Amino acid sequence: MLVDLHMHSTFSDGRYTPAMLVEEAAAKGLQVIALTDHDSWNGVAEAQQAAQKIGGIRVLTGVELGTQWENDSVHILGYHVDMQCAALHEKMDEMRHGRERRLYLMLEKLDKLGYHVEVEACDPKNRAVGRPHVAKALVAKGYFATVQEVFDALLHRGGPAYVPQPKLSPSEAVDLIHQAGGIAVLAHPSELSDASLPERLLTQVPFDGIEVYHPSADEEKQKKWRLLAQKLHLMISGGSDFHGIPDRFPSQLGIWQVQYADVKDVIEWK
User: Fold this and answer.
1) Mean local confidence (pLDDT), 66-91
2) Contact present, 45 and 35 (Cβ < 8 Å)
3) How many degrees, rounded to 5, is the angle at CA 109 between CA 192 and CA 165?
4) SS3 sequence, 93-144?
5) What angle do CA 111, 75, 204 make, to 5 degrees?
6) How far apart are CA 237 and CA 212, in angstroms?
7) Strand, coil or helix: what is 165?
8) Which of 4, 72, 133, 134 has the highest count of CB atoms within 10 angstroms of its CB?
């Protein structure tokens, strides 16, 4: 049984609406998915309604919170969160306001560098805007051929148009997810620049799981993260991190596959 516990919609930096994601996932034979938009769960209800209409597919409530630890951007997935939790809801609204302020600063920097683009500001109740939106605007304007080229030239950490994003600490994010009755999973550990950081984080912060299966982890890395999960008695999660961006792998749902049995504990938690 195929599943995907990490994907993004138009409520953060994905190209598909929540309903479109569910329709595409169902068409590709996925039976369980999780919508994990950045700092937002506002697309989850639409996705779950679409799943009820289609049948044969389940949508877990999820969110991806951005945090900072030392020099690394640490992403944390929250599953089975209660969307009535005021503390997490208010913090995510605050984070999206921070993204909007960051957007204006990035656009100012780009303008001074000779790149003149417009990007719609986020609706503080819905869309979480970020660097991918700016990159896509630059590609659409013809300044660059691909989103990756934009990141490499301008928007990478320390790049000429980069602006740091105000973020939570991992401990704060995990605590908020737990307040919302959910489980906290360290996302894509292979993307952290410090190879020692995942284990240090997982031993110092009360995480519930680790994302073993992700496009950034080859078979050797997956084995490393599975062994770490066993050592620390953590649940295992996995997903494609699908955004629907043509030049970002995976370009289509179903290309990166995760089996139900491998992430069963996360899906069946509670």
Assistant:
1) 93
2) no
3) 35
4) HHHHHHHHHHHHHHHHHHHHCCCCCCCCCCCCCCCCCCHHHHHHHHHHCCCC
5) 135
6) 6
7) coil
8) 4
For 193, phi then psi, to 5°, come to: -70, -30
Q: What is the token pair recorded at 100?
A: 């909007």
Res 126: pLDDT = 56
State the pLDDT at residue 4.
97
* 3-state SS class at 255: coil
Placement of tokens 């069963």 in the chain: 264
Place of tokens 């999206």: 96
Place of tokens 């208010």: 90
Check: CB of residue 235 under 8 Å from CB of residue 266.
yes
Q: Would you say 93 and 124 are in contact if contact means Cβ atoms under 8 Å apart?
A: yes
Q: Amino acid identity, residue 83?
A: M
Q: For the full predicted model, state whether its pTM sits above 0.85.
A: no
Read off the amino acid at residue 110: L
Where are the extended beta strands (E) located within the chain? 2-7, 30-35, 58-69, 72-79, 183-186, 209-213, 235-238, 258-259
**123-139 residues labelled b (16+ CB within 10 A) or e (exposed):** eeeebbbbbbbbbbbbb
Distance CA 212, CA 217 (A): 8
